[in-house]
Every structure is written in C-alpha cells, then in structure tokens.
Amino acid sequence: SSSKGPGPGGVNVQVLLRCRPLSEEERRISTPVVITCNEQRREVSVAQNIANKQIDRTFVFDKVFGPKSQQQDVFNHAVVPLVNEVLDGYNCTIFAYGQTGTGKTYTMEGGGGSKAQNGDLPSDAGVIPRAVKRIFDILEEQSAEYSMKVSFLELYNEELTDLLAPEESKFSDDKSKKPMALMEDGKGGVFVRGLEEELVSSAAEIYRILDRGSAKRKTAETLLNKQSSRSHSIFSITIHIKECTPEGEEMIKCGKLNLVDLAGSENISRSGARDGRAREAGEINKSLLTLGRVINTLVEHSGHIPYRDSKLTRLLRDSLGGKTKTCIIATIAPSVHCLEETLSTLDYAHRAK
Ligand code: ADP
Ligand code: MG
Predict the structure, then answer these.
(1) From the CA of 141, how far away is ligand 2's center (Å)?
(2) Atom number in ligand 1 closest to CA 99
(3) Which of 17, 197, 258, 272 is buried most, with the most CB atoms less than 10 Å from its CB?
C-alpha cells in the first residue's frame, strides 16, 4: 500500500481530504453545495458561479473521504498503518487541518459519545480512541512487555499549557501560571519542562485522561476567554516495547504517536492586522504557516527545514521528516458559504503533497 515505505517523492507524508456532510440546519435551509467528492479518482471538485465568474477546480489527494464516509473508514486508511509503524519503533504524527466547524475534532476525538462501553467503541468514535484501542489490542495479542505514557498539551498564542497537570489552587501566585518552557536537550531534541507524562496500562485509563484533558481545555477557555478554534491540541502516546532478538538479546523499541487537532485554518488568512486580537491570530499563523513550510520543504527536499520558526514544529521535530510518517487529514465543508476557506484549505493541503 502507498502508506508503507516512502511515497513517490521519498517522503512519508500522506494527505487525505475529508468533506463533512451538510448539517441538519444547513439541509433545512437548503444550503447550496459546491463540493463534489470522487473517492475512486481521489478527487475533490469545486464548482460555483459567482457574479458570472465560473470557479471550476479539481484537486487530487492520496485519499478522499466524502460526506458519507465513516469514522471507521478514516481510521482504517489513515491510522492503522501508522499504528503499525509506531509499534515498530518509529515516530508518527496525524494532523487535522481545516476551517473551524469542518470536523477536525469530530475526526480526531469523535462525535461526543466516544466513551467505550464494555471495550467496544461507539461508531462515531474518532481517531484518538480508535488508535488507543488498537495499540492495546495488538500489544495484548502479542503478550508484549511494554510501558506506555501519554501527554496532552495545548498550544495557544505560542504558549504551551499542560492539559494533564494537576489543578492549581485558586490562591497560587502568578508564577505557577507561567507558560511552560520548551527546552533544547543538547542532542538536537526538545522537551517541555515540567510536562506531566502519565504512565498508562489500559485503554480505559487513556479515555479517562483524554476526558480530563478536554474538560480542562474547556474550563480554561471559559476562564481566560480563550477560543478553542485558536488553539492547537497535541495528544502524544509514547511506547517502549521489550523485545528479544533471535540470539536472545534484549532490545527496547521506542515509538511515538502524536495526534494533533490544529487551530482553525481561517486564521491563516488574517495577516497584517494591528490590534491585539489579530496579533493573537498572527501567532497562530506562525505555527500553522511554519508547519506548512516544514512539510513543503520535506516533500520537495528543498534544503533547510525551518523547524525552529514555531513552537509546534519545534515540539514535533522528532516526529516530522526522516524515518517518520506523517498524515494530514484536511477537513472541509460542502457549503457555498465556506467556499473561500475551502479553496484555501485545498490549496494548503495540496501543496503539502
Ligand atoms: P472543528 O473541530 O473543525 O471546528 P467539529 O469537529 O467541531 O469541527 O465539527 C463541527 C460540527 O460538525 C460538529 O457538530 C460535528 O459533530 C459535525 N461533524 C463534523 N464532521 C462530521 C462528519 N464527518 N459527520 C457527521 N458530523 C460531522
Ligand atoms: Mg474543534
């Protein structure tokens, strides 16, 4: 399959496109649709006549998921091969990229009811709970000796917050609210000082941690008047597996899976503004734009990779490029009202190919 081994350009970046269905409300008011997905041809077409100017464009991706696609389909194509890589000791990253309201969180986390019942996930469970379940299923099947830890970070306005850190006291001084520092480890890697990494030994434990992190994210949003659409969330699973070589030697394989729900891409087009709010948007631009440049450079083998230009790319440096595999799931809405943002998402995602 195309996700095994380097792609045509020798780079392991897969770009998938997912178009959500019209919402009930959009259907009720008969919102015009401007997107056609051809899953066989892996094509997305945009067609619309605006003021007698006909827009007609077609984009090809590694895989296209139309409005009827199921969470299970996306998981099977986008995630299963990467989970295998991670269990083989590689680092992989899955990004959800797109305008707010197009299904990034739905794709990554699921449609709300993503809690496991008796070990089975609901059909609307997203990539993260499915990946977690699959990893544990495989490890158990192999009776592997392993250790696993997870972390959950939020990147807002180029500042990092630990979504798993214990609640701070209301009375703690301001120092404790200092944003977390990203430090160089002197070996070309980075680490987040004081980051909470939780050891986990079951899928149920991870689901609880995910819920706790999401709840903290929501609380912080309300308290600090943040907008979730402006923050990136990064959920990382690190696995160490003990193995014996045929010669009976012990070996530890270490792999990492990063699952990233990116900030809304609508901020990417707002540039040059002067007020605080827009500067905030500009900071999000920085991580999103740098991510785009890093991926472009990787795909085109065009020299210096600007990892250092944003926190997001510094943080994910050991999981982007080299032997790692990256999957970008670009999400769009079919509505005419999203046309402009949809074109910009298609362009961004297409350039990453
Ligand atoms: P984003 O995270 O990109 O802002 P959401 O994931 O919150 O977008 O999705 C917006 C709304 O659309 C939610 O109500 C979500 O449940 C719904 N939705 C998104 N994608 C799909 C899909 N593929 N199928 C059904 N509903 C979806
Ligand atoms: Mg979201």
Answers:
(1) 34
(2) 3
(3) 17
